[in-house]
Amino acid sequence: MKLDMIKSIQPAGNKGFTLIEVLITIAIFAIGVLAVASMQYWSVRNTATGNVMTIAANLARAQMETLKSVPNITSLVSSPNPNPPMIDADGKPGGIFTRTWAISLVPGLTVSRQIQVTVGWSRHGQSRSVVLTSISRGNGT
Asked: How far is CA 57 from CA 3, 75, 77, 129, 135, in A?
């Protein structure tokens, strides 16, 4: 009697997975894991690129504010070194950034100057830069 009950509980036909079904399942799972890993890699890389661009914009903004706050804007000259030293995120020597600026006359305005600050860097084999341009009369205006 017990043997009859055990046989009636087990379904007729397949009693497990075949090797091919298991291999197909593993292949589908592996493709999914590789897709997630690829998305994670590109997400981290793009976040790091965004952080570097933010640092470069902050370095350019800080230099722009320094140049605009000069009392006599007509005394400003462009950055003195054509090959500026590499700076870090705090503007100290030893980073990946270069910072230059150019001062030019504005047609029709004698007391104002156009200021252009460029912060450049090279990463992943690509050279990039952030450029800020402003017209100022000095004293922060």
From this structure: 79, 25, 21, 9, 18
